[in-house]
Amino acid sequence: PDYYESAFPQLDTLAIVRGEAEDGFDCQNKTRCSLIPSEDYFPASESVQDWWENKLKSDDPPPKPTNPPPPDCSAAYLEVSYRCRRRTPTGLLQRKVACSGDGNAILECDEGSDLDIIAATYGRRDSTLCGGASESWDATYCPDYYESAYPQNDTLAVLVTGEDDGFDCQHKTRCSLIPSEDYFPASESVQDWWENKLKSDNPPPKPTNPPPPDCSAAYLEVSYRCRRPSGFDFTLDIPANITVLYFLCLIGIFIVTALVHPTEFYCVLHGIWYLFCLPGGYLILMIY
Fold first, then answer.
1. Considering only CA atoms, which of 143, 141, 136, 134 is closest in space to residue 198?
2. Is 41 exposed, middle or buried (0-12, 13-18, 19+ CB in 10 A)?
3. Which of 54, 45, 60 has the alpha carbon at shortest distance from 6?
4. Separation of alpha carbons 177 and 104, rounded Å
5. What are phi and psi of 120, to 5 degrees?
6. Which is it for the CA torsion 27, 28, 32, 37, positive or negative?
7. CA separation, residue 190 to residues 140, 150, 193, 197, 250 (Å)
8. Which neighbouring-strand residues pair with 49?
9. pLDDT tens string 105-139
10. Whether 129 contacts 123, CB under 8 Å
11. φ/ψ (deg, to 5) at 16
């Protein structure tokens, strides 16, 4: 079990099944998926022999007898935990985080609905995502650098349009993204941004001429929703919740009726009692 935990990390296995890794099975959000439990698809990060030698070196005291042979760790199997769930309704805002170096990231909607990209940022705002930032990552200055070097509108344009090697994801059912600086280039380097910041800071930071911060390990974060391809989507484009609109129309009907009958206008005040007692009325009706 210790060898398997080291050689087949759970997150790597999960990424292969979901399709987030290269040559993965892409089972996420599918109705049916076929898996092949083989080391051709789930390769070990290290052999049993290498793992065993490293373990013998690190054990204190060393095991007896000296230099024992490695254990037999063959006959592995694939264990998957999953659940079946209803498909995402149109209009629900979704968030996708794509890590640099993890291969393609997939944005996908159910059949009959298209992608509507709301916002996109390239950089890092959370030090824990995508394996975490390095210990030298600067949480004070790096978010400011990313905001300056990767403008949100430029990042969104790369996703939405197909110009200048953009991904052209808008109004597509499925879109593949590559979170890399080859597609999301910085408008300025960390060094240039840092030098300009030092010149503009008043008073200047101490010590004088400090080195630029470590702002590596960026990731792509996309906010999107799935909507029907027609020009008007009732679930998204109505000005308020349907229940709110229903009550506003109900109140409007009674107010218009009261204006037509001014001598009985005071009866509208009893409508407040009606709205308060309506839930209790259903309860009493069931008891009755």
1. 141
2. middle
3. 45
4. 5
5. -155, 135
6. positive
7. 14, 11, 5, 10, 59
8. none
9. 888 887 778 888 889 999 888 778 887 766 667 77
10. no
11. -65, -45
- Count Cβ atoms below 10 Å from residue 160 Cβ, excluding itself: 18
Three-class DSSP category at 35: coil
- Spatial distance between the Cα atoms of 27 and 83, rounded to a whole number of angstroms: 12
How many whole angstroms separate alpha carbon 106 and alpha carbon 122?
16
Which residues are paired to 123 by β-bridges? 219
Helical residues (DSSP H) of the chain, grouped into ranges = 2-7, 10-18, 48-58, 142-149, 152-160, 190-200, 234-237, 242-260, 270-287
Q: Give the 3-state secondary structure of residue 147.
A: helix
Q: What is the DSSP letter of 214?
A: B
Tokens of 169: 């994801």
Look at residue 264 and give its three-state secondary structure: helix
Distance CA 60, CA 65 (A): 14
Q: How far is Cα 166 from Cα 177, in angstroms, rounded to an integer?
A: 10
**In this predicted model, what pLDDT tens digit does every residue of 4-35 receive, in sequence order?**
888 888 888 888 888 877 778 888 877 788 88
Tokens for 213, please give them: 């911060």
Residue 236: CB atoms within 10 Å:
14
What are phi and psi for residue 258, nearest 5 degrees? -65, -35
The pTM of this model reads 0.52
CA trace torsion 242, 243, 244, 247 (10° rounding): 120
Q: Considering the chain, what is the average pLDDT of its residues? A: 81
Tokens 């080291």 sit on residue? 6
